[in-house]
């Protein structure tokens, strides 16, 4: 019987963070303290947890973090003024604005104001364009983490049919571009795709980021598929589950990411790595 490979994001994230410790130590020997500014607007409870985890992970590898916690009522102008200040502060190497933002703030306008050379999230239009031109400078952390996880497990995507479920700016669109850059044949599906499950059944590599608990079932995949689950949802019992029904799909898959412990930890590791890269430069 074939054993399914578990794509363990926690383990790889740990390995990357160990390597980063050495790189930050070398920077500090040169008198450079790599520093990340983290901006959180409002009190969204999930965002508060992610930001806390980012601070903790950054401190562990020797990065300095500058914390900006702004009230829910913050205006677009106030946030833009803070970003303008951080853009010209030479002691800050990376700027991150935690998403989502409150409704009075246009997140596209905010990400476009971050200096592209400090844009650790890879959300600035220039960085998005560079990614789509196959000349990436700074990559969105979750899709970058997925590619690293696949590479770590020697999963070559070239010539494979990769099906992406979801078209968000944070995951769906950039992972489609990264897979295409790596010579996969890419199909992007979303909530309006009429024959979505017909397409997922054709996938050699299936990336699911649609935000619906256990949406992908055993009948939606072919045997031997590689499944990457980007979802994070609470099921009826309050348990954290992905967009893929792990219990059903795992026995059929060649490899699969768990939730939690798959893609999530990779997001934070790649954020730290990008900050260190900017500081090294
Ligand atoms: N500016 C950004 N905002 C957001 C991003 C982003 O990359 N940049 N991504 C998400 C949230 N996110 C990071 O910010 C994130 C989400 C989840 C995890 C994670 O480690 N998840 C764990 C489970 C955590 C839990 O128990 O709740 C896992 O999957 O194992 C890390 C980062 C939206 N906003």
TrEMBL record:
Q: Which reaction does it catalyse?
A: (6R)-5,10-methenyltetrahydrofolate + H2O = (6R)-10-formyltetrahydrofolate + H(+); (6R)-5,10-methylene-5,6,7,8-tetrahydrofolate + NADP(+) = (6R)-5,10-methenyltetrahydrofolate + NADPH
Which domain of life, per UniProt?
A: Bacteria
Please provide, in alphabetical order, the Gene Ontology terms of the cellular component aspect for this entry: cytosol
- The Tetrahydrofolate dehydrogenase/cyclohydrolase catalytic domain, residue ranges: 7-121
List residues binding NADP(+). 166-168
Q: Which PROSITE patterns match?
A: THF_DHG_CYH_1, THF_DHG_CYH_2
| Pfam families, per the entry | THF_DHG_CYH (PF00763), THF_DHG_CYH_C (PF02882)
Disulfide bond is among the record's keywords = no
Keywords tagged on the record: Amino-acid biosynthesis, Histidine biosynthesis, Hydrolase, Methionine biosynthesis, Multifunctional enzyme, NADP, One-carbon metabolism, Oxidoreductase, Purine biosynthesis
What are its E.C. numbers?
A: 1.5.1.5, 3.5.4.9
Alphabetical GO biological process terms:
L-histidine biosynthetic process; methionine biosynthetic process; purine nucleotide biosynthetic process; tetrahydrofolate interconversion
Q: Which Gene3D superfamilies match?
A: Leucine Dehydrogenase, chain A, domain 1, NAD(P)-binding Rossmann-like Domain
Any one GO MF term held by the record is:
methenyltetrahydrofolate cyclohydrolase activity
Keyword Cell wall biogenesis/degradation carried by entry:
no
> Which intervals hold domain Tetrahydrofolate dehydrogenase/cyclohydrolase NAD(P)-binding?
140-280
Q: List the InterPro entries hit by this protein, alphabetically.
A: Aminoacid_DH-like_N_sf, NAD(P)-bd_dom_sf, THF_DH/CycHdrlase, THF_DH/CycHdrlase_cat_dom, THF_DH/CycHdrlase_CS, THF_DH/CycHdrlase_NAD-bd_dom
According to UniProt, this protein's pathway is: One-carbon metabolism; tetrahydrofolate interconversion
The UniProt entry, under CDD domains, shows:
NAD_bind_m-THF_DH_Cyclohyd
Its quaternary organisation is: Homodimer.
Q: What PANTHER family has UniProt attached to this entry?
A: C-1-TETRAHYDROFOLATE SYNTHASE, CYTOPLASMIC, C-1-TETRAHYDROFOLATE SYNTHASE, CYTOPLASMIC-RELATED
Which NCBIfam families does the UniProt entry name for this protein? PRK10792.1 (NF008058), PRK14186.1 (NF010783)
Membership in a protein family:
Belongs to the tetrahydrofolate dehydrogenase/cyclohydrolase family.
What is the annotated role of this protein in its UniProt record? Catalyzes the oxidation of 5,10-methylenetetrahydrofolate to 5,10-methenyltetrahydrofolate and then the hydrolysis of 5,10-methenyltetrahydrofolate to 10-formyltetrahydrofolate.
How is this protein named in the record?
Bifunctional protein FolD
